[in-house]
Amino acid sequence: MHQVKFQRRRLLAGFAALAALLGLLAAPAAGVNLAHSVVVSADPSSTTPNVLDGQVNAIVQVGGKMIVGGTFTQVRRGGGPILTRNRIFAFDPATGNVDTAFVPSLNGNVNALEPASDGQSVFVGGAFTTVNVTAISRLTKLDVTNGQRVTAFTPTPPL
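The structure assignment produced for this chain is given below.
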């Protein structure tokens, strides 16, 4: 009987030690302070175009282009001319040049962008009701070469 009590105590002590160890392993990691050799630049890339009003809500890469969506209506590359871009624009990530062929016009904010699997178009979601003056509500697919709506895409309403 004495040996059974001893084995129970050992077993309970083993469980307690295991529980304590698991508790330590499950605890959140402490923050790590790393010394940096330089201060991060306020301008991390000199080739990215500037959005002059509103804000950027989404950025995706489709092929060799970056597509940017948000609440803005004007962009500029460096000291270049101010360009009207209604809530969406594309640019070349290597040069920063705003794509002059991709100029879709949306009458409401762009909240989300998703590259299409074809590598040539982008899904655009937001608060818009027209795309290039055609009535389209909240979701469309655009060709990234010319900014035109891909008419073969018709969103299915949720059930």
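Interim note for the steering committee: The mean pLDDT is 82. The helical segments are 2-26.
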